[in-house]
Amino acid sequence: xxxxxxxxxxxxxxxxxxxxxxxxxxxxxxxxxxxxxxxxxxxxxxxxxxxxxxxxxxxxxxxxxxxxxxxxxxxxxxxxxxxxxxxxxxxxxxxxxxxxxxxxxxxxxxxxxxxxxxxxxxxxxxxxxxxxxxxxxxxxxxxxxxxxxxxxxxxxxxxxxxxxxxxxxxxxxxxxxxxxxxxxxxxxxxxxxxxxxxxxxxxxxxxxxxxxxxxxxxxxxxxxxxxxxxxxxxxxxxxxxxxxxxxxxxxxxxxxxxxxxxxxxxxxxxxxxxxxxxxxxxxxxxxxxxxxxxxxxxxxxxxxxxxxxxxxxxxxxxxxxxxxxxxxxxxxxxxxxxxxxxxxxxxxxxxxxxxxxxxxxxxxxxxxxxxxxxxxxxxxxxxxxxxxxxxxxxxxxxxxxxxxxxxxxxxxxxxxxxxxxxxxxxxxxxxxxxxxxxxxxxxxxxxxxxxxxxxxxxxxxxxxxxxxxxxxxxxxxxxxxxxxxxxxxxxxxxxxxxxxxxxxxxxxxxxxxxxxxxxxxx
Amino acid sequence: xxxxxxxxxxxxxxxxxxxxxxxxxxxxxxxxxxxxxxxxxxxxxxxxxxxxxxxxxxxxxxxxxxxxxxxxxxxxxxxxxxxxxxxxxxxxxxxxxxxxxxxxxxxxxxxxxxxxxxxxxxxxxxxxxxxxxxxxxxxxxxxxxxxxxxxxxxxxxxxxxxxxxxxxxxxxxxxxxxxxxxxxxxxxxxxxxxxxxxxxxxxxxxxxxxxxxxxxxxxxxxxxxxxxxxxxxxxxxxxxxxxxxxxxxxxxxxxxxxxxxxxxxxxxxxxxxxxxxxxxxxxxxxxxxxxxxxxxxxxxxxxxxxxxxxxxxxxxxxxxxxxxxxxxxxxxxxxxxxxxxxxxxxxxxxxxxxxxxxxxxxxxxxxxxxxx
Lengths: 522, 372
Known about the structure:
Chain A folds into 4 domains: 1-93 and 173-251, P-loop containing nucleotide triphosphate hydrolases (Rossmann fold); 103-171, no CATH class; 255-349 and 437-522, 3-Layer(aba) Sandwich (Rossmann fold); 357-435, no CATH class. Chain A is 33% helix and 25% strand. Chain A has 18 helices and 20 strands. In chain A, the strands form 4 sheets. Chain A has a 6-stranded mixed sheet, with helices on both faces. Chain A has a 6-stranded mixed sheet with strand order 16-17-18-13-19-20, sandwiched between helices. Chain B has a single domain, classed as ABC transporter involved in vitamin B12 uptake, BtuC (Orthogonal Bundle). Chain B has helices at residues 9-34, 39-52, 56-79, 87-105, 111-140, 144-164, 189-195, 208-225, 227-237, 239-244, 249-276, 287-297, 302-325, 331-347, 353-362, and one strand at 370-371. In chain B, helix 3 (56-79) packs parallel to helix 8 (208-225) and helix 9 crosses helix 11 (249-276). Chain B is globular. The two termini of chain B are 16 Å apart. At the A-B interface, strand 2, helix 10 and helix 11 of A face helix 8, helix 9, helix 10 and strand 1 of B. Chain A: It comes from Amylibacter marinus. Chain A: InterPro entries: AAA+_ATPase, ABC_carbohydrate_import_ATPase, ABC_transporter-like_ATP-bd, ABC_transporter-like_CS, P-loop_NTPase. Chain A: GO terms for molecular function: ATP binding.
């Protein structure tokens, strides 16, 4: 069913490393994959792109033997095969690098790579063989890693390399990478892509799963697009463009940029002064953080995740008590000696869209209407009487679902049964409806599909134009660039610098994210 | 991920427990047949023993009362995701609270002052006995299962010491208190009915049964209609989200445990104020533990808890009748039947979930696979 001839690797005759035909898979009532056809020419980088929940990961898990397809056929190098477990797929030469690394942090690189091929009761033989393999792979692909280093001491990019080595050690000829760049800086992403290209030129077939269009354009030879559990198209990368892919993914035309007018900053609503936080293990996770934020302004915070953004958000929203310094917010003060809890801050006019809606933003087992009052359940929104008035809540919820286009618009449906984008809309509806003067946003569009991203961005801009002071933390650089008026880059718990969004670009931000000062990065 | 389609609510709440019950009964039936009795006859005796014979219904409902209170205790804590194993100890100490009020106030005050104070005393002492483990869990991270179990032992030791020592009735040898003044006696149902000229068989069933029904209502309103209940459920389902929402998680856990303990403590109103009119050794007799099965089977919902309590009431009363009527069916055999039902409706409660769900889809009662 391929729409066009796919690009194959150079002079070898068109041969497919992997062919899928009519793959279907259901989880309960959800059909995650429907009649999927896919042909991957050997020795190419093949992108699989689609929104969250489009079924990409399910398809890859079927391929890797973690799930079993309900129907369909699979051929590897032209040979039909049945994959019942990951052991089968490894034997067939399939390796997978998961989105969340499967490494033992307290083991060394060597011990991690050895896992699964220890070679008998004593480790000696397996260790020697693995060392040789590591050395050979390192030389062939330019992936040199110290075999004795502890995983916990390595940075994320290197850990990922260990994952790739682990997959290649087993002799993988087909390598699946599931959202590999989510945790990398732009520079690390570049390096990863270089490695992938070397691997491809050596004949390894690579499946790259992602929802980032620019990565597809940068590194793949062919791309297959998934939407709502089906394969909606196959393209040769050189013959397509980001706009077309986005349209295929979403099913309609989307704006890839954020449209906004100039900001009209008013008085300072939030000012952070020498803020510091110490982790439970005694490490400094936030150091000497200072900035001001005015009403009608969006401050973006960029940085590789895990560089203190989470702690900063927690302090700003009252979920964590600062260890040093203070926050002046809406004329009040937060410090170690005078902390404020999230409820007090909400009453003052602060709203908080948390980084992780599943952990903080929603109670997944609650109905949508119960979630719409979370944090505001002591207010009149739950009725004015001694008891909760479900009718009042229901009316509120239905109204918000209508305004924010939450689908399905059923207030009695449990939060877990909404898609990621709609869950996020429920959270955003709740927080924006409280009419905040300061809004703290973590990852506004993580795991949200392209169509909903556009909507969420518009809501945030509208709130800014209404005079709200907004802090947006996001790992998506494009998003930070598009939304923000000013951008602060964080590295190792510190601010590397604050730049005007209009005067910067991905390159400069990327270097700053790696800790290189603003001046040096220019 | 499992391949099980979701079970509709009605099937989860009604069909599944009924299936579990019947499987348990079927296995018991086989065992009874193996030891040489007719299982149908045996179950017939059980039903008659629980409902038909004179006074039997009274006894059944008297047991039911205990199970309602201890089941509510487990369910309240469970909504905050706390596993309160300490209902036994909390009920025991609740009896102490009732006794204190009875001895301190009873001799001087009329029943309409004494009884409310006794009931309050039972609830307050039970609440305190659950609050301490709640505090230790919330503030110190001591696991609630461990601490509540330990508090059962503490309660048992404390009560032995009190009943065999300071509180023992002078001049006799059995570990129990003196009988309360009549102002601290909860009236029997048979006495109440007699006032209206209706004669029913005498049984231990007393006014506390109505108190238990009221408690079911209070539980429902508390959990689903109050802001406190909302906070308890939020803490139970997602403590991180509760923290985000500005709910004081530790305080909510302590409050939920206190309410849980209060329900358990109220069990003493039945045994201490309604039946024995004094505190005797081991009056809790394992009702606190059975409350765990009641809450599990009743899905932590008041209607379910009532039905499960009734079932266990039937098992206790009908089981005693079995023991009485059949030579080969001993007290231990009756325990086995109860154990089977606890096993199937408690520990294995969801064993039949996947096949039932698939069956419902196959016969078209439930919509199966739909588009993602």
